[in-house]
Fold this protein.
Amino acid sequence: METLSERKKRILHAVVASHIKTADPVGSRTVARTYRMGLSSATIRNEMADLEEMGYLEQPHTSAGRIPSQKGYRYYVDHLMTESKLSEEEELNIYRSLNAEKMREIEQIIVHAVKVLASVTKQTSLIMGPQFQKSTFQQMRILPLDEKRGLVVLITDSGFIKNKVIKLNQSLSPMELQQVVSYLNQKLYGLSIDQVTTTLINELKRDLFRRLEILEQAFILLEESLREEQQARVYLGGTTNILSQPEFKSVEKIHRMLSLFEQESLLFEILEKNLTEDDSIVVKIGTENEYEGIHECSLITATYKIKDRVLGTIGVLGPTRMDYRWIIAVLRCLVDKLNRTLSSGL
Amino acid sequence: METLSERKKRILHAVVASHIKTADPVGSRTVARTYRMGLSSATIRNEMADLEEMGYLEQPHTSAGRIPSQKGYRYYVDHLMTESKLSEEEELNIYRSLNAEKMREIEQIIVHAVKVLASVTKQTSLIMGPQFQKSTFQQMRILPLDEKRGLVVLITDSGFIKNKVIKLNQSLSPMELQQVVSYLNQKLYGLSIDQVTTTLINELKRDLFRRLEILEQAFILLEESLREEQQARVYLGGTTNILSQPEFKSVEKIHRMLSLFEQESLLFEILEKNLTEDDSIVVKIGTENEYEGIHECSLITATYKIKDRVLGTIGVLGPTRMDYRWIIAVLRCLVDKLNRTLSSGL
DNA sequence: TGTTAGCACTCGAAGGCAAGGAGTGCTAAC
DNA sequence: GTTAGCACTCCTTGCCTTCGAGTGCTAACA
């Protein structure tokens, strides 16, 4: 990437800032006046023509002002934008709404967090639920409900609790159940759910069958229950916020976006691509996103964790024209708070 | 309601049918030609003018055709529409998609059903989840997880299983827990969740405290967990389907509808108003709905049940111009199947 | 050599206008 | 009571004009 003269930088910055604010193409006059460059509009016009040639700006049509290109936004995010701190008030606002209810389970906390993020940013926000597959087995219980049914409860280290009613085709004595369960707990403790493969289960099954042949049905169902949640869930907040954005005023565009929001697995893939191991915030602008349905959008994400173990990705999706600086600050603040809640909470 | 001449009925029927199909205002020519009345357009014109005066039809503007008024739709639904059976193919289609996965828990079945309903009807569909409050207590278990935490599992007769992790501020011996739990089960069995009031809980608490003073915390949390799900959930399907409807082509209308879809408690109220005890299907047209946000919509609902106990309401929401006849048939078929699945399944 | 004022030019948005067409209401004849 | 005929209404569509914001270029200026 070429280096830009100081003056070009200032002008590019001004164009980006103005366009983020107003959503209109910005002309040389506006830059000269509103941003007090100490230069005439004609000079700025020349510079803007240069910036366009270099690919940082583009013109919707000849007689309109300029808008930042994707490259322009990228330059802004990488070199021009200063990190901003939220005002005390904004920060308090986020803290307060996250504390609003005492929540005990991880899923509730997450769903709540994504709603808060959406309502603060006025954009659509998404969060990848904690990845069940990656969490490690802590303990399993089988609770006999009556002669024919039992409740399998699976608890993992990240506070995940899964349960499932299973049918048992033969009645089991509590003793027998107890035996099976403690055996399983012993064998599985500390493994990640990923590691509990079908082969491992088969092994255990063989092992157990020597002693107890009655559990076939129970096992099939246990296996099923593990396989089922193959993929973490994605929760959304503020999906209707895109309707207020001027770039989504056509019904087809809205349709495309909302249909995307209904495809959980696609959202998951998109978010997964932004998963990082460190604390950085990832900004993907326009076509930098691999899924072409959001080539006119930007996605800003961060990872959230529980005691240094990365759980998933949370982020904001909006038009490329979004207030990167502010949203990054909000996201940082919210993730910080979320991490602390999760790590202390459970 | 006045009685209409046979001829007026036929014309009204034709207008409604044509408008449902095309979404355009229908003129006298169209009625005469397409529906082979054996009358000239002029005659029909006169009749239509009468029907307008009587309030069954209305004109968007002078030189347009007529569209059915709300009163017109009502008359159609009450007197003109014949009940239709689905074709074998359609019926099979519904059956097949409902059987697609073997589902064990009531919530999954319901969520799946509402999706199927939406995709078949190409409208938005909603279902009120089984009302936790109305189901009766079957059994409760407390599963100690470690010294500090326990898992409360609550099982009701409609197959509802609720669980919640609680913190215990003092360690409990399994014996002690066992005692409390069996006492509670004995006292609460067969009561509806509604009936488990705070006062009853307090009574039990007092009773128990004489013996075990350590459980205060556990009790507070149990109470909380009961209170929490005050209101059944509402699940939606095909929310984006309204975007394909010509009556929702303006962004503001879409916005209003989608915002409504985010307000679960409002949806619940709307559905609750349609709850009946019998097997009838309820049709609310336009302003017959109390919530004014859907005064341009119609809502068709049925109740679903498990072994003759009403669980909740399932329905279709769409523009007043919808194919009542067909949608009622679909709904009937689906609810029938759903009831059987629920009653046999668990 | 860089900056600025001036000016012609471009192009979209908005408004007005006429033509076209679907449908009506009325009247008079059957 | 029914129908053909006709004038009338009013929306839709396309076309044209005007308006204005903004540009690029040129020539003059510091």
